[in-house]
Amino acid sequence: MSANIEQRRHLVTALPGPRSVELMARKNAAVAAGIGTTMPVFAVEAGGGIVKDVDGNSLIDLGSGIAVTTVGNSAPRVVDAVKAQVDAFTHTCFMVTPYEGYVAVAEQLNRLTPGDHEKVSALFNSGAEAVENAIKIARAHTKKQAVVVFDHAYHGRTNLTMAMTAKSMPYKSGFGPFAPEVYRAPLSYPFRDSKDVDGQAAAQRAISVIEKQVGADNLAAVVIEPIQGEGGFIVPADGFLPAIVDWCTANGVVFVADEVQTGFARTGAMFACDREGIVPDLIVTAKGIAGGLPLSAVTGRADIMNASHVSGLGGTYGGNPLACAAALATIETIEADNLVDRALEIEHLMLDTLHRLQADDDRLGDVRGRGAMIAVELVKSGTDEPDADLAKTIASNAHQQGVIVLTCGTYGNVLRFLPPLAISDDLLTEALDILTNLFKETAQ
Ligand code: PMP
């Protein structure tokens, strides 16, 4: 945890404060309108569970910059490693003159990701770029083209990953045409599936769609988030993911786990696949991998990964040395500080509070998630009708009080919590108290 920032929520102005208002006006004049803002508050410093703004306000961070600063912002080992690397060299391009850091990150990924088969890795910059590369690799290996994704999926904003992402507004609307050969199958969504659809039945429903509408002979890869992120933190029913993996294995289809949001201790295991007991052929990682520096990866079975011809994969910045130094320090921090266990503690604390709140307030239709990836799906009282307005109201009232929370979900009705694992129990409890009061106020 960053020792320099007092771990205390403290507001000295209304939010946004005057300096943030000024900067927002500059942003609106200088930055493309398509780049949105969750909270119009400009950051100057962050660490532990606190983000400080330009007006001197200290906010509680329940967002981690969308699941990125899992080890905390400016985590001490990450800062030291990046400083040392920036003094040594900033870039040579790994494809021109390689460096050890990239190789060391690949070795760590091969060691940490699920399964003890022979693995290799390739490094990129963003989650979307890594997802695209997983598809290139699966196509090169299988010599097939089709890709299956799921309802509510989010895989990125590049052309291929827009096709893979489910939600039109704001991610796709007006930006087509999209890449071909992408097909969508139904997900297991326990809160919205009828009660007789267990994990096995949901898998059979998806497999039937895949077999009838695509065909295993045409299918290169099935890509799935083991717990959906932007789609609403949907945890599939037990047995759903293993059945899909088994079907892929039996049918010569590459199973790709998109762990961009769930990876690196976020869900109370190093990877979400671990808690499902599944071993993906390829796993895509990003976000939490490097403590805030841009890095992503594809890791997987050597025979699949090595199907691409030499120089078929790569990119100028992929596996940048600063990002690799940050990733090695991030992994060291997760292991040395037992952050997997910390994520489980956060899970217990959050689920306990939110379940108690749910017992008194039926607008909390579903409380779900694992580790420090927890959500509440909000519905209109007495129904299962999504209530996006309530999610918006609670989130913006929380923002006013200095708590950074995010929303998500196909229906925009899910409040999601992604605290850094460096947050203290005190800050987490304070944020949950604030949220509890906001629910009580809006119930009146
Ligand atoms: N996959 C998943 C599951 C994600 O959550 C995200 C980002 N929210 C992406 C892919 C895309 O990552 P990036 O924004 O780094 O391109």
Write structural notes for this entry.
The protein is α/β, with parallel strands linked by helices and 444 residues long. The chain has 2 domains: 18-74 and 338-443, Aspartate Aminotransferase, domain 1 (Alpha-Beta Complex), CATH 3.90.1150.10; 78-336, 3-Layer(aba) Sandwich (Aspartate Aminotransferase, domain 2). It is 38% helix and 16% strand. The strands form 3 sheets. Strands 4-10-9-8-7-5-6 form a 7-stranded mixed beta sheet, with helices on both faces. Strand 7 (219-224), helix 8 (240-250) and strand 8 (254-258) form a beta-alpha-beta unit. The longest helix is centred in the last third of the chain and has 22 residues, at 339-360. The protein is globular and about 60 Å long. The chain starts with 17 loop residues before the first helix and ends with a helix. 50% of the residues are buried. The model has no long low-confidence stretch (mean pLDDT 97). It binds 4'-deoxy-4'-aminopyridoxal-5'-phosphate.
For the largest sheet, list the strands in their spatial order: 4-10-9-8-7-5-6
The CATH topology assignment of the largest domain is Aspartate Aminotransferase, domain 2
Helix share of residues? Answer: 25-40%
What is the N-to-C succession of helices and strands? Answer: HEEEHHHEHEHEHEHEHEEHHHEEHEEEH
Overall geometric form: globular
Which kinds of small molecule does this entry bind, naming each only once?
A: 4'-deoxy-4'-aminopyridoxal-5'-phosphate
Q: Whole-Å distance between the termini?
A: 39 Å
Mean pLDDT over the residues = 97
Would you identify the regions where 5 or more consecutive residues have pLDDT less than 50? none
User: Radius of gyration in whole Å, from Cα?
Assistant: 21 Å
Q: Indicate the CATH class of the largest domain.
A: Alpha Beta
- Number of discrete helical segments: 14
Give the second-level CATH assignment, the architecture of the largest domain: 3-Layer(aba) Sandwich
Largest sheet: 7 strands, mixed
Number of domains: 2
The percent range for strand residues is 15-25%
The CATH homologous superfamily name of the largest domain equals: Type I PLP-dependent aspartate aminotransferase-like (Major domain)
Q: Helix/strand/pairing class, anyone? A: alpha/beta
List how many beta strands DSSP finds: 15
